[in-house]
Amino acid sequence: MDYRQYIAQKLNLDCITSADIVLPPNSEMGDYALPCFKLAKTMRKSPAVIAEELKNSYPTDGVISGVSAVNGYLNFSVNKIGLANDVLNEVLNSGDKYGSSTQGNGKTVCIDYSSVNIAKPFHIGHLSTTVIGGALYKLYKFLGYKVVGINHLGDYGTQFGKLICAYKHWGNREEVEKGGIHAINDLYVRFNTEADEEMEREAREYFRLIESGDKQANELFEWFKSLTLKYVQGIYEKLGVEFDSYAGERFYTDKMQPIIDELREKQLLKESEGAQVVDLEPYGMPPCLILRSDGASLYATRDLAAATYRKNTYDFYKNLYVVAYQQNLHFKQVFKVLELMGKDWAKDCIHVAYGMVSLEDGAMSTRKGKVVWLEDVINRCIEKAYTVIEEKNPDLENKRDIAEKVGVGAVIFGALYNNKIKDVVFSYDKVLSFEGETGVYVQYTGARANSVLLKSDGKFNLPDNYEPNAQEFEVIKELASFPEILKEAAEKYEPCYVSRFAVSLAQKFNKFYIDCKILSSEGDSKPFRLALTKATLQTLKNALAILGISMPEKM
Ligand code: ARG
Questions:
Q1: C-alpha distances in Å from residue 298, one per residue of 188, 240, 250, 252, 268
Q2: The Cα angle at residue 126 between residues 123 and 128, in degrees rounded to 5
Q3: The domain at 3-78 falls in which architecture?
Q4: Which atom of ligand 1 is nearest to the CA of 303?
């Protein structure tokens, strides 16, 4: 049973949902609380008066044992024995399904994420889209949705003409085969610094050849593409993300004309300096470019075709784009054009924007080849994790394997800990700290719980009428909130709700662990505490799994 939902329902107020019920910072104020400030506006009374009135009419029962009104808060005390029993039974019975739901059954969510650019570096700037998208993908699946992960490849554009030109002048097959994406990128960078007028002209010609289906030009292009994909797939495996479709921009080449025709039919196209645009001035936006004066399509044209294709193919309930906030305007324009075309599903297209990630030393320039490759960041984190483990626990078995889980986990958790729209500065020391609000801290807490369980005989029956003490009850409440946290995370497209939950649960568990004996406790305490430990480990695992992080058994 979900206690926050239970409390909200019994309040019987239209504007109050379980999300309005909070966990008060200290338990003397009750176990759950409703801040009445939001109600003050609509009810035209002071929060204190509202809290007092609600208190008088709230029916207590076997679940809610007491209600009080303090400083504009309505505080609830719950039947601790009942809640503890309910929650522990539910977690232990559901195991790795705890927190999952069927709310999404019958609904499909498309998630466009990572969306790499062929033959360009996969750098630290791609971390957020990859791990936010990856987490949303797992989260929606866990909530019962059908999910389609789409890697909208950047595989269209004049840069491929430049690349072919650079390759013809300076490249050779063995070197590129061996150097892979790095060799390709070097060629591209070299073109941008050294190409003269003549080479620029050649590059345009090669691009035209790709477009017109020339065999040799297309073979080269496909080769560059396959080298890029092979490379990024290695990183996806490490980060635990997956895709169901790699339909990139090029895929829409033959799907744009119907869109253009439709725009014209609906009299939405306007000529502007030779180009075809949709005027968005009435909506306070610059025009959306559909065709350039030479007839070439644009990024937005392909996105219009892609959104339409996704609707027709997957009949999505939601169509998400996990893309940096630099593209805010682009998506606003595209969604507006869809709306003007009369697509009622335009409202289901959502730009899930996020902020920039930079490294502490500030190195993140993509020009002149000075790029921080994401792979290097991950590997460096794994190396550093290995050093830390070696220091803390030199006798540990499988140190390499654990360092990999910890290092990768640190990178992912570091990118998912903050509200996604914030710019973050990535610091190796910070994400690898055992004490901070990190993935390592959560993993370490899990390993600690696991070691307690391994030392017990693993057999216990949950006692029936055990009244949890304060530390135990704090953990219980955290555990109970997990299903609701997941729903809110999905609703707001915010994986950080999940990472923050994991840290908070770990903190509460560690407080309990330090204050209360587990293995040497007596009577009903021991089986109860073992159950609590097991349920915590399970819930931490479930939370980390959604973020794409594994829990090492030992650390
Ligand atoms: N490849 C693009 C970039 O790196 C991101 C594509 C996002 N998806 C989309 N449907 N526009 O900026």
A1: 22, 32, 11, 11, 16
A2: 135
A3: 2-Layer Sandwich (3.30)
A4: 10
For the chain, how far is it from start to end, CA to CA, in angstroms? 34
What value does the mean pLDDT of the chain take?
93
331 Cβ inside 6 Å of ligand 1: no
Q: Name the β-bridge partners of 269.
A: 278
User: Where does CATH 3.30.1360.70 sit in the chain?
Assistant: 3-78
Q: Which of 113, 152, 229, 350 to mutate to test the pocket of ligand 1 (most atoms within 8 A of CB)?
A: 152
- Cβ of 474 closer than 6 Å to ligand 1, yes or no, is no
* Separation CA 14–CA 413 (nearest Å): 36
**Six-digit token string for 121:** 């570096």
The Cα 294–Cα 276 span in angstroms is: 10
Amino acid occupying residue 172: N
Q: What is the mean pLDDT of residues 386-391?
A: 94
Q: pLDDT category, 367, cuts 50, 70, 90?
A: very low
What is the whole-number distance in angstroms between the Cα of residue 180 and the centre of ligand 1?
Answer: 22
* Dihedral sign, Cα of residue 409, residue 414, residue 420, residue 421: negative
CA distance 436 to 387: 18
Ligand 1 near 152 CB (within 6 A): yes
CATH architecture of 375-547: Orthogonal Bundle (1.10)
The answer to whether 150 and 310 are in contact (CB under 8 A) is: yes
Atom of ligand 1 nearest to the CA of 306: 10
pLDDT at 84 over 60: yes
Task: For residue 323, report the distance from its CA to the centre of ligand 1, in Å.
Answer: 7
Atom of ligand 1 nearest to the CA of 330: 11
Residues 6 or more apart in contact with residue 319 via CB below 8 angstroms: 109, 110, 112, 307, 310, 311, 345, 348, 349, 350
In tens, the pLDDT along 220-272 reads 999 999 999 999 999 999 999 999 999 999 999 999 999 999 999 999 999 99
Considering the chain, tell me which residue range(s) the CATH 1.10.730.10 domain(s) occupy: 375-547
Give pLDDT, residue 356.
86
pLDDT tens string 201-218: 999 999 999 988 999 999
Q: Are 372 and 428 in contact (CB under 8 A)?
A: no
Look at residue 361 in the predicted model and tell me its pLDDT: 66
**pLDDT at position 370:** 63
Q: Which atom of ligand 1 is nearest to the CA of 327?
A: 12
Q: Which of 110, 112, 114, 115 most suits a substitution to test ligand 1, by most atoms within 8 Å of the C-beta?
A: 115
